[in-house]
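Aim 2, interim progress: modelling of the adenosine-5'-triphosphate-bound target.
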Amino acid sequence: ACDNYGIENGTNCICPPGVGGQECQLPTCGGTLYDGPSRPTVQPQNGALYGNSSGCSCPNGWAGVGCNVCESASACSSAYQSNFGDQNSAITSSGGVSAITCSKTPRVYAVGQMSCDVNNPTIHALYPGKTTLNILRNLNPSNTLAANVSSYGAAGSVHAQLWYDGEEEFFCNADSCQAEEADGSSHWTCHNLKCTCRTNATMCGRFPSTSIKGTIDALSGDLEIKCDTQSDGTVRCAFLQDTIKSVFGASGLPMDNCRVGECVAQSVIDAANNGNSSSSSSNASKGKELSGGVIAGLAVVGALLLALLGMFIWGWIVQRNARKTGTDQAVKSGGVAISWSGINYSVPASNSQPIFKKGSSASVGDRHILHDLSGEIRPGELLAILGPSGSGKSTTIDILGGKSKVGKTAGAVMFSTMSPAGQRSDPVNNPRIGFVDQQDILPSMLTVEEALLFAANLRLPESVSQEQKRAKVFEVMKQLGILDIKDTRIGSHERRGISGGEQRRVSIGLELVACPDILILDEPTSGLDSVSATKVVNVLRDLAHDPENPTAVIASVHQPNSKIYQLFDKVLVLSRGRELYFGPGGLAPGDYFAARGHPVQKGYNIADHLLDIASDPTDDLLSSSQRKSASQTSGTGTITTEDERTRADTNAHTPNEVENRDPEKAMSKEHVPETKKHSSLRSPPLMSTYRSTFLTQLEVLCGREWKILKRDKSLFFAHLFAAAVLGAFCGGLYFKTGITIAGFQSRVGCLFFLGSLLSFSALSALYNLIEIRPLFLRERAGSYYSPTAWLLSRFFFDVIPLRVVPTLIVSTIVYWMAGLAPDAAHYFKFLFILVLYTLAMTLFNFLLACTFRNGGVAILLSAIFNLFIMTFAGFFVHLSDIPPVLRWLQWFSLLKYCLEALAVNEVGSGLQIVDVLQGVPVNVSAQLIMNLLFGFGENNYYRDVLVLFAFIAGFGIALITIVWLNVRERR
Ligand SMILES: Nc1ncnc2c1ncn2[C@@H]1O[C@H](COP(=O)(O)OP(=O)(O)OP(=O)(O)O)[C@@H](O)[C@H]1O
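Predicted structure of the complex, ligand included:
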């Protein structure tokens, strides 16, 4: 059993320099490094356990505990000569003995010796005596003057002993060292560290209350020894190991006043200087290498960038090809007939919107809204749907327009082109339907022309040139009589812009610029004075009767005056969801009802007369509601359901068959297959229905967002201002936090405050999304752009300016005011975490806004989530103190990852806590306090970065899925 990791040699031990005795248990006393085993040693005195070298003195030219460190070349040569004088030729071929020198820099040439004072205040408070650490660094023992005497162990190993007031406390060794040597500095990284605390030595259990035996015996892993020559010529070193760093800080155990000295042949120094400036052992370092994690991270970032670039190039090629093909294609509209048969619609009697659709057939208790409607409109015809309020006009319009309905729909809607002979010919599978809603939902910050150009850019084919699009917009504005307001902003309720009537016309214009095959409008004249209303209907009539592009136009009208009424070619009169009349307009409906005992009074507006009848229809009218257009809709061609764009046999839906059909029957078995087809009518527009490519959609959307941001700077500046004020407040609250234990808690408090602030700020993302949702719904229903393009544009013009930039501002102000780690690396790592956190929280709020139609519910859930993540962040309650049944919830706390990464980053700067506890000075690493107080792991920074990335990716994917599946019109 040899102490000091001596090597057993029969009954004796071979000991490292500085200790001796049979079991290497005694300190040497005087003598020189070259005296080897013959050096005198000190026996324990007066019943002490260990020998004490404090009374020993070194010969001239030697220093340090154990006298291993040379101070002059002459000391080396004379010591060497006196022991090995007759063997000097073996060590140097050229210089002989005279070339021996004492190198006094931290750099090691063969085997270096040093002896340093340990002056840490915490150690000093516990052990006020003199603490010294001796370290022997073995670079290349074969180059020493006397291998195995002045060296010990294999190349690339280190041996150390800690002495307290002359008594050895513990010893350590490590191997597989890599050395980076330069003039004036030395950095060794070794592995397999082991240390042994000498039983019942002063630090190792003699006084149990101050014993560090457990810690010392457990030291393991990697060891670094860093030494530098200071400007005043002294040498300072640090002893770095994970446990030691967690106690004394990132810079490890500091050692001052190091006495370094190596007796070495000048030829070895010359060879080292001539050869490689960084002499090293066989295990020497080849320089700093990037860690695997960093390489993997860089690879992922690189791959992402490449993928983005690839997608962009692909998008660009697709865009270019789309622009090239069919450039001569004319901007043509109309030419498609629409016919419908057996249209029935019912909603649950409870009047509530069904969450789960159970089946397609009507169940008992369903409320029938529409009963067996059939009809047809050809290009060049303008149809008015008349009826009192609640008669089913909007519902009919919705179904003809292919809108997604919450109730059950049955029947078929068909589209076909017209032959030159005026007969329906080929079915149209993918008709372009222009749909103008009852409400005007318009981009308030754009001018009329910009709004129309936006629609033209997205809804006209790529092959149409920009000039053609502008010309189309101009033509539509002229047609609608809105040329003189083309540069006026549309405005909103809060900020007045164009009038209600003008808004109606802009809404119609948005559809007209897309050159629809069929135009369907829900109450285009509502809210307009009679002059404006007449103008609007005139426009519709002109569009329908356009000699070049005759178009089928359907409009529901609430109460048309006689002038407006006369403009319609055909009329459909609805009463309680039933068709009272369908046929030619003008005087024909009057004659029809006169024949059934309801003559129109002379001079009375026929439209009013029709409304009177429809408001209070007699039973016989309801039961015998006939259709004038019977002959026109008799089956030709094929049926195309608007939703599935599939073909079906029209024979099943001839008007004769649907006439007078009992709606109950219509919704029952015989219609089940048809109904099923219709139940999938709620599918969103297919990708192929977008007329512009993805890149164009993104470009145009970004263009609009940019304009809005430029015009409404108040939102942007409000965010910046709020960020600056909150930053100043938080920075003031934690102004220049101290480095005491209380100060450290404030530091983490400051980080927590910042994280919570960003969590709550992200709520505004939720609100913004809820606000713009109606516009998105309308534009999505009109196949303007894909939801992915919209989300990306939100990212560029909401997330970056309104989330990321304010985050950078508030974080920067707080960082420097609170006095956090004052170096660039830690500052940027701090910003990086907060930006990731902001992104994750913003996406989470977007997700809520898209999942819940009710903004109140979304906001409530977001607030509860914030409370949850704050609770499990580790600041309010120590994570390991949470009962196990709840503890797992911490893994969902985004704020925990953010706070941990921020705290680790802060203490990783080498933050040292300096405090006095009950008179005992404390100087420990903040890392230790962080572990104790908050349970954060000191190596978790990159893990937390990865987790935040994972949350961002998860929320992003969920958001895209939800937007595609859930955020769409349902009426
Ligand atoms: N999802 C629904 N749930 C319950 N009832 C509905 C639903 N959709 C429509 N209805 C009912 O169907 C009837 C017809 O509604 P619709 O909106 O089509 O009438 P309208 O003729 O357009 O009325 P208005 O002229 O007042 O707009 C109304 O009584 C309405 O309450």
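Residues 347, 351, 369, 387, 389-395, 406-407, 558 surround adenosine-5'-triphosphate (CB under 6 Å). The mean pLDDT is 82.
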